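Q: Predict the bound structure with D-gluconic acid.
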Amino acid sequence: MSEFSPTPKDKFTFGLWTVGNPGRDPFGKPTRGVMSPAEIVDLLGEVGGVHGVNFHDNDLVPIDASEAEAGRIVGEFEAALKRTKLKVAMATTDLFGEPVFRDGAFTSNDAEVRAYAVQKAMRGMDLGARFGASVYVFWGGREGCESDAAKDPVEAEARFRRALDFLCEYSIERGYGYKFALEAKPNEPRGHMFFPTTGHYLAFIPTLKHPGMVGVNPEVAHEHMAGLNFTHAVASALAADKLFHIDLNDQEFGRYDQDFRFGSANLKHAFFLVKLLEDHKYAGFKHFDAHAYRTADRADVIEFARGCMRTYLILRKKAAQWNADAEVKALLRQCHRPGKDVDALTEKFSRSKAETLLGMGFDRAKLAGRPLPYERLDQRTLEILMGV
Ligand code: GCO
Ligand code: MN
Ligand code: MN
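A: Predicted complex:
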């Protein structure tokens, strides 16, 4: 055991569809053999230190499985969980893969498709609850359009709200105790996606009937695809008490969906993300929604999974080192200028405080001349990261 070996307490999880990804892409066939759910759980057992596994309804039970087939698959999966002591952390619904969802699921223009999507989510929730999943993710993979001639986006949002309100009630009625986590993605696979960023969902949640049950599942790659700062999206979720789950991976900015190993493309961003999660004591699951390179074989897939967790744990140590570093502390003291008296003025509005503030004189030139050695601070940060 090295200091960077994970344990189940770290709450690292992987999806059946991530380590089980056979390397298919829009241009090429699978490069690895397809594994059964039980085989994927065994592989995660071999990786070591993993807390749990996540699945879409149809990752576990194929959509057209007979009852007997479903029973066999679920039984084998259950036995593998027992063998490896892995838990099921999160479950979700595949509302994007089947042609029936070609124009969306909850936001489809066809009422029957919308009803089918809600039914499929209910059954997915039943399946997840059977394995003790506590988080239920909603990624609206096909919720969008290619042309705005197709749908009124306000009406589409109302349809999405109706579906979620209904599913919240279903979870309550069944006593599942799920936390719902909404996952945004800016592009792919639709031409224009509804709810493209985590911020869109944070604005949407308070309009629901049960906003307390619903939070977000931000993903590194999704905010980076949009050219946004992922750490800031996570910060908004933390500030709103809505970080119910997180999808960790990596992505070059401005590219197609890459799903790289955590930290492999943007190490500095990954550092500030880990530091934020640790500083704010995020205690939920940390799910690596990433795929091994298409060139990887089984042994390399295991290295991929270990690498995701190891990088997180190394960055966690770097974050602690940064927080304790004497030079960083001195620089921060220089850059942060607290002022209790002036802060108190704007803390809670009163007419007299407003009068006082209006009457104050500020020396703009003096304020603008105060040193802000952010170059030194950032260079120190990089040197900590580089191990110098
Ligand atoms: C993607 C998404 C998915 C979701 C998953 C769970 O880009 O395909 O990130 O992997 O996370 O469907 O809802
Ligand atoms: Mn993704
Ligand atoms: Mn994801």
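A: The chain is about 50% helix and 10% strand.
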